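Archive entry: two folds, one per protein. Generate the first.
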Amino acid sequence: MNDLFHLKIYCLEFVARATTPIEMGEYKGSALRGAWQSYLQASFCGVPPSMRSDPIHQQACPVCYLTSRETNSETRRPYALRPPLSRQACYQSGEKFVFGFQLFGNTQAIFPYVLLAAREMGRDRGIGRNPQTAKQRGYFELLEVNNLLPFTNQRIPVLKNGDSTIHPPSLAVEPQLISQICEQWLPDLNNGRTLKIDLLTPLRLINKEHLMRVFDPLVFFQRLLERLADLSEQYGDPPFSEKKSTLGDLVNGLSPMAQNIRLVQDNTYWWDISGYSNRLGRSQPLGGLVGSVHLAADDWSELLPIFLWGEIVQLGKNIVKGGGWYHLEVI
C-alpha cells in the first residue's frame, strides 16, 4: 500500500522572537499565512496582478506557483502550514514562538521564497497587530530555521541566527521512512494496543455536505485517502495516475478494513474559531474538531501507512492556515 504514494515532503521549523508585542489571537494560522502570502505577492513577482493567472507565467514563477493555486479548488496546495500550538493570544517583545511549513513537490524552486518571505514578513511587513499601537503591526525576528524528519529525532539547521548562508533541506519524508515506522509500530497495534490521534489544530471535514462534528473513523480515513491520491497525482514521482490502481479501486479495497476500525475513546470537542480572508474579503470559519481519539483494529497492516502519511500532509479544510494537523502515538 505504501508504494502507491511516491511523495517526498520536506518539513521546516521556524523559530522566531517577537521584537514588539504581537497579537494574533488564540489561533495564529490565519495571521501567519496572510502575512506570509502578502509578502510573497508584493515582493517577489513583478508582473501585474492580471497576468498572474496566466498558466505559462505560473509555470515560470515560483511565487505564482505557490499562490495561484489558492483560487483553484481542483488543485492541492504545494504546502501546509503548522502554526504555534499555544493558545497564547499575544506575545510580548522577547518571547519566542515556533511555526512550520511542509513542502510538497518542486521544493528546490519554492524553498528560497518560503524561507525569505517568512523572514522578511516579520521584520518588514509585520503580522497581526501591536496592542500598544492599535493601527500598527507586530514584528519579529527569525532566530533559526531547521529541517526536521518526523518520527525521528533528526534535524539539521537550514539557517542560523546571524548567518546569511542558507542550507537547502536534505531530510525528507519518503515511502521508505513510512515503511520503517510501520515495521516498528505494527507488532504492538496488531497485538491489541490502540492508535491515539491527537488533533492539534482544528479538523474540519465535510461528509455528505455537512460538517463532521463528531469524529467518524471511516470518514476520516476516506478523506485521507482522497487527499493522498490527489497529492501523489500532482507532486508524486511517479504520479498516482501511473499506478495500476485508481482512487476508486483504493477506496473499494480498503473500505472493508476501514469499516472495522473501532473508536475506543473519543475526547474531541468543537473549537469554534474564525479568521479573516483577504481573498474572500470577509471572515472565514476555521473551527473544527480538536482533542484526541483512540482507535483499534484487528489488522493495521494496510491502514497504518495511510494514517502515518496523514500526520505529515494534514487533512481537511484550511490546511494552508494550519488546519488538520495531528500527531499519532501507539498506546
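Generate the second and append.
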Amino acid sequence: MRCYQCGAQLTRSNRCRQCGADVTVYKKIISLSNFYYNDGLEQASVRNLTGARVSLKRSVKYNKNNTDARNLLGLIYYETGDVTMAVAQWAISQTLQPDDNPASRYLDDVMGTKASIASENRALQKYNQAVTYIGQGSQDMAVIQLKKVVSLNPRMLPAYQMLALLYMKTKQYGKARRALIAAKNIDTNDTTTLRYIKEWKRNTGKGMNRQERLRTVTPSRDRKVVGEGGRKRVIPVKRFENRGFWTFVNVCTGVLLGAAIIWFLVLPGRLHQQEEEYYRQLRDMYRQQETAQVFVTEAPEETPAPRQTETPDTASPVPAETEGPDTASSVPEEEDAPVPEEE
C-alpha cells in the first residue's frame, strides 16, 4: 500500500514516514476495497455473477485505482454478454496501470480480430431489433431474432431471459425451462432469472430440482430429519403400501381397453369380410341361374317324323266292314259297266 500524496510505501503506522500525512482513513478505505474484491472473487468462483458484480462495484467505488477489481468486473461483464462494459473496464484498468496488466491481454483477445467484433456488433443489433419487435407486438419475429442472438453470443444473459419470458407468454413452458436453465448456468443468482423461474413454477406447478419437489410435494408425515446440529437434512420415509387393488384396477382397465379395441377396430373388419363373402356367393348363384335359363331358351325344337305313303303293293288289306241287319253300307257298290259290241 502506498501513500496517496507522495506514493511512498506505507507501514503499520498511521502516518506516512516520508510526507507525514495521516493515512488512517485511507487505510480503512483501501481495506474495504480489498474486502469487497475478495468477496466478489469468491462469489464469481461459484458462478454467482450478480453478487460478484455488486461487490466489485463497491470495491471500485472505494478505490478507483484497484485494477484487479476492474479486471475481474470486466470479465464478469464479458461472461454475461455485455462486451461494451467489459471493454470499458479493461480500458480504464490499462490506463491506470499500463505495465504488467492482464487487461491488455483481454483487450487483444476481444478486439484483436475483426470477425469477433463484427459478431458482437451483430448480436447487439439483433438484440435491439428484438426489443423493437416486442414493442410492436411481433413476438414471433422477436423470438427469431433472439435465437440468432444466442447463436452469435451464447453468453448473452438478457437474451436468454427475454426468450424465456416470451416462451412463457405463449405457454411454451418446455422451451422456457431450457432458456431459464441456460440463463441460470451463466449466473446462478441473477434476480431476474430467479424471478422468472418462480413464475415458471407457479404456472406449471413443477420444481426445478429434487429438493424443492420434496419440500412441496411430499407430506410431512412422509419426511424425517436426520443428523444433528448444522448437518441436519430431510429425507423421505419409505412406506410399503398394498397396491393389489390398484393392480386389479389396472388389469381391468387393460382388459376393457383391449375389448374396446377389438370391438371398434377388429370386429368391423371381420364383419365386412363376411358380408363381402356372402354377396360374392349370392352373385355366383345368380350367374349360374342366368346361364341355365339361357341354355334352355336356345335349345332346338324336335320336328315330327314324315308320314309314309302306302303303295298298292305294300298297302295292307283293309278289312271289309260287315253290315248289320239294320244298316246299309255307306259306300255304293260299283255297277258292271256295259261292254261295247264288236262290229
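Annotation attached to the second fold: The beta strands are 223-226, 233-236. The chain has twelve helices and two strands.
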